[in-house]
Structures are given as structure tokens and as C-alpha cells.
Amino acid sequence: MIVKFCSRYNTDVHDFRSSNGFAPTLLAHMTLGHYIVVVMEKLVLRQLTKYDLNKADIQEKINRIAYELQKKNYVHGDLRDANVLFDTENNRVVVVDFDWSGIDGESVYPPFMNPEIIWPDGASTGQIMCHQHDVYWLSQLCDIINPTIS
Question: Which structural domains are found in the chain, ordered by start?
């Protein structure tokens, strides 16, 4: 199992993704002082590669992640390639890191966003998170297959 300590965590979005097979199973969560302790199943994960992304079923799963989040009015907020991974034991795409997740158009980005990352327009500390930001990151991931020629 994996144990994570964080200042915020959306168990509803994590459970939703897990129920469709797109996230590790959430085993427990509790508040301990100023932290939320999250316990989840341990998976053997690796980053997606160009080889993975050339497969139509992987692309379909990535599109399904975005569609289902939008359908439930959820937003992940940080669907960079570091958080959309391949579960090698179960041969599936999974999403991790639900610290920022919330409701599309209501939840806000946390403080201390990495300034080294080029975030989508409108994605910054204290600003409203929206589904288009998730779509931006997933399209960046899929661009690994067909990079734009400059």
C-alpha cells in the first residue's frame, strides 16, 4: 500500500476514477492534525511512452478519462504526464494525485504551484479550475505521438 500525507485531497474524484478502473483503489483516508492521510493500493506504474500512445485503445482510454470527468462535473487540475501513468500489472491507464481535484468551475488551484511548469491559460494559484485545463494536459500527452513540426 501507499500512504500519502497532503493538505487537501478529493476522495470523491479518486473513488469515481477508481470505480472505473482508472485509479488505484482508495483504501482509507483520515485527518491527522493539519494533514489528510490517504492510503491506497500500490501499483507498478510507469510513464506512458510514444509506443503506448500509438495504440488506439490507450488513446481511447485517455479520451474517456477526460469525457467522464466532464460528465460528472469533476476536474483533476493536474493531468500532466506525471499523473497519467501506465499500470504494468493490470495493463491499464491510471490517474494519480487527486490533491487538487474538485468541481469544474468551483474549485480553485492551490498555492505553491510549480513556477517552472508552463500551465494552461488561467491555471494559476487561487484561480478557478476548469475542464479545459484537464483537456489541455491530455492533449499535451497525446502530442507525444504526433509532435507539431516547427
Answer: 45-142 (1.10.510.10)
Could you tell me which residues come within 8 angstroms of residue 95 by beta carbon, excluding any fewer than 6 positions away? Answer: 17, 22, 23, 65, 76, 79, 83, 84, 85
Q: What is the pTM of this model?
A: 0.88
Outline where DSSP puts E strands in 15-119: 26-32, 35-40, 45-47, 74-75, 84-87, 92-95, 102-103
pLDDT tens-digit profile of 30-58?
A: 999 999 999 999 999 999 988 887 788 88
Neighbours of 68 (CB within 10 A): 14
Q: For the ranges 6-10, 12-16, 58-62, 126-130, which has the lowest average pLDDT?
A: 58-62
